[in-house]
Design a protein that fits this description.
two-stranded antiparallel sheet
Length: 360
C-alpha cells in the first residue's frame, strides 16, 4: 500500500492569479518533507486563475466548495473543511492563496510538531508581504486572547503593528494560530471536529484552537518557519462586512466555548464593552459602532443557532475552564491598550506588574 504524504497543504482560493504565486513558492521552497497540495476553490465566478494554475502545477488536487454558476461562496472554513475531508497527510497546512512561504518553512513546522504529541497546531512567523520587516496584522508571531475573548497577537495589538526585531523568535505556547497559515495535526481533529462553517470568515481559527485547548492540546509558535501574507486580499482591510463579521463571530465564539458559569459574568461585561464602541461615533468612526450593534443584534435574535453550536463545542471538552484560562492573557487587553497605553505584546505578557509571565 502506497504511503501518503507527510503534509497535506490546503490552499483556500478566492480570486486572482495570486494563487499561482502562492503555489510557485510552495513547490520551489519546500524540501525534505513529502507533501500534497489541495486547492479549495471558492471562486464566485471563474476568472481563469485556477485554470492557469493547473497548467503550471498539474499535480494539485482541486475541491469545489461553492461559488460559480450563481451559487454563493462558502467562505474559508468551508473550503478548508472540504480539503481536510480528502487530505491524506499526517498533518495539514491550511493557508490562504495570498501567502508566500520561505525556504525551510515546512520542515521547521513538522519538526516542532514531532516533539510533542500534545501539540495540536502550530503557527509560523507571519510577516507582511508588502512590508517584510513588519509583522502581518492578521497573525504576526502568533495569537493570544484575553479572558473576555478579545484577540491580539505577538507583534500586533489592535491597530499597532510592530517591526520584526527578533523579539518573538523564541517558540512559546499560543492560544490561537492564524487561519491563513495554521499547521494542524490531523488526528486532533477527530477529537475537536473541523472548522465551524457558520462563521463564514473570521474567528473560525480561534474557535478551532479554543476547542483544541478544551480537548487538552497545545498551540505553539514556530518562528523558524517564516511566511509572508498579503493581508486583506479577499475582503479588503476596512470594508464594513469584515468589521461586522469579526464583531459578530467573536461574540459567538465566546458564547460557544466558555462554560455557563463563566458566561454569567463574562458575557454581560462583553455587552457593556461592545456598547462602549458607540463613543467612536464622536471620532467620525461609524463602522465599528454599527458592527458592534449588528453583532449584538444577531446574537440576541439567534439563540437556537448559538445553543446548537455551543453543544457541538462543549461535547469535546476534557479540561476545565481554569486550565483553558491559564493559556490566556489573564487581564483585559482592551483596558491595557486603551487606558494604560500598552502597545506591544512583550510589555503585556512579560510585565510582572500585570501578573502575566507568559501563556504556558
Amino acid at each position: 500500500m502506497e504511503e501518503g504524504p507527510m503534509v497535506s497543504i490546503i490552499v483556500a482560493h478566492y480570486l486572482d492569479d495570486i494563487l499561482s504565486g502562492c503555489l510557485r513558492a510552495i513547490y520551489e521552497r519546500t524540501q525534505g518533507v513529502s507533501f500534497e497540495v489541495i486547492v479549495a476553490d471558492d471562486q464566485p465566478y471563474d476568472d481563469g486563475s485556477l485554470g492557469r494554475a493547473l497548467q503550471k502545477f498539474p499535480d494539485i488536487r482541486v475541491v469545489k466548495t461553492g461559488g460559480g454558476n450563481g451559487t454563493p461562496t462558502r467562505g474559508m472554513a468551508a473550503g478548508y473543511n472540504r480539503g481536510l475531508e480528502v487530505a491524506r497527510g499526517r498533518y495539514a497546512m491550511l493557508m490562504n492563496n495570498d501567502v508566500e512561504v520561505s525556504t525551510g518553512w515546512l520542515g521547521a513546522l513538522v519538526a516542532a510538531a514531532e516533539t510533542d504529541e500534545r501539540i495540536g497546531a502550530c503557527q509560523p512567523k507571519v510577516l507582511s508581504a508588502r512590508e517584510p520587516k513588519r509583522f502581518d496584522d492578521g497573525g504576526a508571531a502568533g495569537g493570544m486572547v484575553d479572558l473576555l475573548g478579545y484577540p491580539f497577537c505577538l507583534g500586533r495589538i489592535f491597530d499597532t503593528v510592530e517591526e520584526d526585531r527578533g523579539q518573538y523568535d523564541s517558540s512559546r505556547d499560543l492560544f490561537w494560530a492564524l487561519g491563513g497559515a495554521v499547521f494542524i495535526r490531523m488526528s486532533c481533529l477527530e477529537k475537536t471536529g473541523r472548522m465551524d462553517e457558520a462563521f463564514y470568515m473570521h474567528m473560525e481559527e480561534i474557535d478551532l484552537c479554543w476547542r483544541l485547548h478544551l480537548a487538552g492540546f497545545r498551540v505553539v509558535s514556530v518562528p523558524r518557519s517564516v511566511v509572508y501574507h498579503y493581508g486583506g486580499w479577499s475582503l479588503g482591510t476596512e470594508r464594513f462586512v469584515r468589521v461586522y463579521l469579526k464583531q459578530r463571530n467573536n461574540l459567538v465564539m465566546v458564547l460557544k466555548n466558555w462554560s455557563a458559569g463563566r458566561l454569567l459574568w463574562i458575557f454581560p461585561l462583553r455587552v457593556c464593552l461592545e456598547l462602549c464602541t458607540l463613543l467612536a461615533i464622536f471620532k467620525g468612526d461609524w463602522k465599528h459602532p454599527a458592527a458592534a450593534l449588528g453583532g449584538l443584534l444577531w446574537v440576541f435574535t439567534h439563540p437556537l443557532n448559538i445553543l446548537r453550536r455551543r453543544w457541538e463545542a462543549q461535547r469535546f471538552r476534557t479540561v476545565s475552564d481554569r486550565e483553558v484560562a491559564a493559556k490566556m492573557y489573564r487581564g483585559s487587553v482592551v483596558f491595557q491598550y486603551f487606558v494604560k497605553g500598552v502597545r506591544t505584546a512583550v510589555k503585556l505578557l512579560d510585565d510582572p506588574a500585570d501578573g502575566q509571565s507568559g501563556p504556558g
